[in-house]
Amino acid sequence: MRAHAALDAVDAKIRAFGATTPSRYLGECHRAHDGACFGYVSCARTRMILEYGEDVSERTVREDFDQLAEAYAEAACDAFGEVGERMEGNAAFRRALAALGERTVG
User: Fold this and answer.
1) CA dihedral defined by 4, 97, 28, 105, rounded to 10 degrees?
2) pTM
């Protein structure tokens, strides 16, 4: 449920930054007593949310988003992927998400 609230915050931050933001990392978007959500928007305006169940350093969050964005770009540009299929079918993308899931709760 926190991710849904964070999506609204991501949209608000994107509008506030406009197209000229120097960084695609949006920072903390939503906090609850049991965790926080952080946002990122790709150059193609794909919104990404990572949810952490405990306090985490800014550096860790940025590194996780770097890994997620790279895995997303590789999956989106897969020459052998089927048009219209979900990215979960891409084994490398699934592995990257599983690795991130070990550190996050979302």
Assistant:
1) 70
2) 0.78
Return all residues near 105 (Cβ < 8 A) that are at least 6 apart: 35, 51, 52, 53
Residue 96 is inside which H or E element, if any?
helix 91-101
CB atoms closer than 10 angstroms to residue 85 = 10
Secondary structure element (H or E) that encloses residue 6, with its range: helix 2-17
Q: Which residue has the tokens 């690795």?
A: 99
Task: Classify residue 82 by its DSSP letter.
Answer: P
pLDDT tens-digit readout, 11-31: 887 777 766 655 688 888 888
- Alpha carbons 48 and 37: distance in angstroms, whole number: 10
Contacts of 57 (CB under 8 A, 6+ apart): none
Dihedral in degrees, nearest 10, Cα atoms 87, 92, 93, 99: 150
All structural domains of the chain: 2-101 (3.30.450.70)
Paired tokens of 42 = 């790709």
